[in-house]
Structure prediction request, 380 residues.
Amino acid sequence: MSFIEKINSLHLDVLKEIGNIGAAHAATALSGILNQKIEMSVPNVRIVSFDQMMELAGGPENVVASVFLRLEGDVTGSMFFILSLPAATYFIQQMIGNDSFIFESESPHSEMSLSCLQELGNILSGSYLSSLSDFTNLYLYPSVPSLTIDMVGATISFGLLELSQVSDYAIVIDTVLEKEGDGSGAMNGHFFLLPDPDSFEVIFNSLGVATDG
Amino acid sequence: MVELRDPHIVKVGIADMNIVKSPSLIRTSGLGSCVGVIVYDEKKELAGLAHVMLPDSSLAKSGSINTAKFADTAIKELVNRLVIKGARASVLKAKMAGGAQMFQFFSGGDMMRIGPRNVEAVRKGLANLNIPIIAEDVGGNSGRTIEFNPKTCLLNIRTVNKGTRNI
Prediction:
């Protein structure tokens, strides 16, 4: 039986809370780095097909900057921090204090901008995961994050490999950080947390939620 | 979601496959470590495309499998479907693209090398059925979108940084 069939609405709420706590810490960290207010969305926990997963990030051909890391330890899984190119431009501008910087016009991208994004991804995913670790009392060891600027399909499929051996669907915890007052949806960053199939039971057990009911 | 699509382009999603006859084109977007393999009958202008995610169906940990997901099962299924549509098994040819390494890690388990493993598995699967590979664009570290025209038998490959080319 697929692990997804065992997931009920209580489980989804638990996962939502994980996204909530993780993203709240990441938003605080981002706010500190950029020295401005950051809004976060109510987390979305969805069971999606792989194609739908691509659509969550703007479709398989959409070009994005993504920081990817693997989770090891008690819970294994994949995590992405995904920025649209305009959002990458904005965040780098804020970090280096240069308003005329345009990320999209760089070819190839400079060491400086890649390093900014890598560090941003590193700090944000680090704060997300350390809060998750505190909350669940589980040991989590994130890998060194790796940055790539390419099509959504090409980057996200890599995080689906473990899941794809078991299922054609993924459970994704999706949270969005956004510049305050930006209604356009352009200046945002998505966190995608994709626990491996075996990890759901570990997460639920750590929080005292039964998995066999 | 409502999407306007060119009726002549058949889109293939991840871990999926389909067959087209000219004048339609067949396309798959955002290949990373996945491999897009096209098997075609030049004279009949028939082509099938599979977007393969994993090298071997023995990796599957659950009972029922999606044949398009694994290189070994996808190629067999693709050939079966082409033959049902009237393609001749003895003259089939293939082209492929993908199998990139999108992220660089210091430590690499088996999954980190999935791109090259997918490419090898597709080569093996095609060799087992005596289908020659006419052209390929594999490896590297760029995502690819590919589109095949069964009429010209050209495979158009688009990448973010290196532009487009036909093979």
